Amino acid sequence: MTQPQVPFDDRGLAYGDGVFETVLLREGKPVLWSYHLARLRRGCQRLGIPVPCQEALDATWQGIAETPLEVLKLIVTRGSGGRGYALPESPMPRLLSRRTPFVPATARWQKGVTVRLCRLRLGHQPALAGIKHLNRLENVLARGEWQSADIAEGLLADMHGELVEATSMNVFWQRQGRIYTPRLDKCGVAGTLRDALIEQGIVREATLPVAALPTLERLWVANSVQGVWPVITLVCHTGTQKQTWPLEPVDDFQVAAHRLLGYAAQ
Amino acid sequence: MTQPQVPFDDRGLAYGDGVFETVLLREGKPVLWSYHLARLRRGCQRLGIPVPCQEALDATWQGIAETPLEVLKLIVTRGSGGRGYALPESPMPRLLSRRTPFVPATARWQKGVTVRLCRLRLGHQPALAGIKHLNRLENVLARGEWQSADIAEGLLADMHGELVEATSMNVFWQRQGRIYTPRLDKCGVAGTLRDALIEQGIVREATLPVAALPTLERLWVANSVQGVWPVITLVCHTGTQKQTWPLEPVDDFQVAAHRLLGYAAQ
């Protein structure tokens, strides 16, 4: 399969000047599509990039599914042009996409995962917070902190020590029976599963210092492609174990989230 | 001239996972080449990207010059591969380059420029500060704040209100006869002209709250391609004039910097 290409002067390559989406396709149909479209539009508007038309966006997933589940990755860049950082007068955004077969890590749904607290702290930039833009070096550096396959994800705090997200997932926790996720107004990516869970009233936004992580009743990492992984072990970046949680026989949060994604209850 | 291309899965496009250099070529030879190489290496090392070999880097400028001055743009990405943000086990970096004819804005050397204080504040991220990585959305957003051709550059402060840089240049100021430039340990790009000026003892690092800008004796913006522009007018982001400086008959700082770049004294 030939990949789409972008030229040297594309601003997505030059400056990370664009946004992307990673969408679960079930039998060729996008899951949580309206949430992905909403975030893509929000990102384009924030950056002043014209939003590709609905037909072009829909065309990225129309076609025959090769496997029951696929991942569709979409990239929208501002295109070429402009002098240096200056914006082109008549931007011609590029929309690129690719579909790849996908199998979720179901063992992680059932057995839970070990996560690690990353050393890197996310910087604050309200102008870019929440959107899924192409400037992802912080995530790359954080993910580069560990190699062990035993560690499923890394938790990220901001410069003030507040929990923000995992490197490619959002974070959720339970306290006094209620489920929360970090506010993402200063940094972090607002996932579409997170958006849907908030909209349904299942989750609410809150702040949590990472120092309080061991006091939580339960902890999960989740996104719209992989679903929900219960955290059973938290290690700090030195590898020292900080906390463990027992695996619950019935995980209502996971069931509710997986219903949104079309994953059958375990 | 056909441009080099990168595939969809190149990490430079996907995440801004790479670095770049913008180099002045004079009669086909790179100016401040050792400083550009040093910064490129520093950037690759910080990101854990293997540094391209010297021969490959030199090959980007070897060839016949079409015009007396050109700009060489180099991009080094981590290449393709890795699962999501996870680093590829055996990274195969991509080195891309392009040369374009260049004519400096000499009127700005002689007549000075108007700069504007940008609304956007740079976020702190010490892990990425100083290097010229491909995550440049802050610069793009800042440069997008104005369209008027009368404004040559935008000054950027950090979240604490300290002066950092201009959107594509470094900033220098004079106080009590001495010349300073902002420390770049929390954000900003350390320019090669700035590096050379510090190494030569012409400039030293300091901090400056933007509120103190009107009290400076003199102010300049500069980079290794355009040279040094004396600032004669500073406007705030609402367009209100904050300060003016007279144009000096002899600008020793500009003369010293232009000597490093091979630009004749005015």
UniProtKB/TrEMBL annotation, chains A, B:
UniProt key word Nucleotidyltransferase:
no
This entry's Gene Ontology molecular function terms read: 4-amino-4-deoxychorismate lyase activity; pyridoxal phosphate binding
Q: Read off the NCBIfam families from this record.
A: pabC_Proteo
Reactions listed under catalytic activity: 4-amino-4-deoxychorismate = 4-aminobenzoate + pyruvate + H(+)
Query: What is the top-level taxon of the source organism?
Result: Bacteria
Q: Kindly list the residue ranges recorded as spanning the membrane.
A: none
Q: Which family does it belong to?
A: Belongs to the class-IV pyridoxal-phosphate-dependent aminotransferase family.
Subunit and interaction comment: Homodimer.
User: Which Gene Ontology CC terms are recorded?
Assistant: cytosol
Pfam entry (one): Aminotran_4
Q: Can you name this protein?
A: Aminodeoxychorismate lyase
What is its pathway?
Cofactor biosynthesis; tetrahydrofolate biosynthesis; 4-aminobenzoate from chorismate: step 2/2
Q: Which GO terms describe its biological process?
A: 4-aminobenzoate biosynthetic process; folic acid biosynthetic process
Q: Which cofactor does it need?
A: pyridoxal 5'-phosphate
Q: Does the keyword Metal-binding apply?
A: no
- This chain's source organism reads Vreelandella songnenensis
Keyword vocabulary terms for this entry: Folate biosynthesis, Lyase, Pyridoxal phosphate
Tell me its EC number(s), please: 4.1.3.38
- Enzyme class, broadest EC rank: lyase
